[in-house]
Amino acid sequence: QLTHFSALQHQNEPPTCSAVIKTIDHDQVQTFSQPEPASNSEKTAVKFKPLLHISDGCHPANGDCNYPDVGGQVYSRSNWYKDKWAIVYAWYFPKGAEFVLNHVKGHRHIWSHAIVWTDSPNPDASAILGVSLSIPTGYEKEVPPKAKYIEGEETVKLDSYVDYWVGNQSLSFTRKWGKTKREQLTDEARDSLGMFDFQPESSQVNVAMPLKNGVFLSNLRETYPKTEGLDT
């Protein structure tokens, strides 16, 4: 399911309401119905939405590790950065895997994200220039992404897996087909995602919501591919 954070385009924009954050059990998570995208940024986010294949680890859904009936949870936010239109797609995993001392243990909350760098927010006249993926050691960047990882010049194919070398969930490019759907959040749900502390006490994994104010722009700075292919 895809939610575009169009209401949070501006880095310093405050939450739209004074959210009182309440938690629910991971298996009670439900999706939101998706209205048709209206703005150019929403349409472009839908146009370039990635396909996510799950090799191992849990799905970004309601806590069931395989084949969730209610759909996955993926969110996006976009803005200009260095004259490029950057779209950040973030997947929330209620359950994460962590590899410690030859054992795989689980913990609550994992966020993975990918940044699709394009030349315009116009859905009718835009193209992918590069892609940056969050990995446990930083970011993997491809400018331009290899054709074998792109379907129809618009859809990046990604894989979610457990990286046993560094110990937790990671993203990589893949030739395999994944899944994607669309959704939309209420203001209250969006604000709660931005304000809630996802950091598990029992985990060494740094967990931060990639689209929240104070994190979104920092991610763009860190992931911007400084290559001749993008710096034109």
Automatic annotation (TrEMBL):
GO terms for cellular component: extracellular region. It comes from the Eukaryota. The keyword Secreted applies. It comes from Phytophthora nicotianae (Potato buckeye rot agent). It is found in: Secreted. Keywords: Secreted, Virulence. This is Necrosis inducing protein NPP1. PANTHER family: DOMAIN PROTEIN, PUTATIVE (AFU_ORTHOLOGUE AFUA_5G00600)-RELATED. Belongs to the Necrosis inducing protein (NPP1) family.
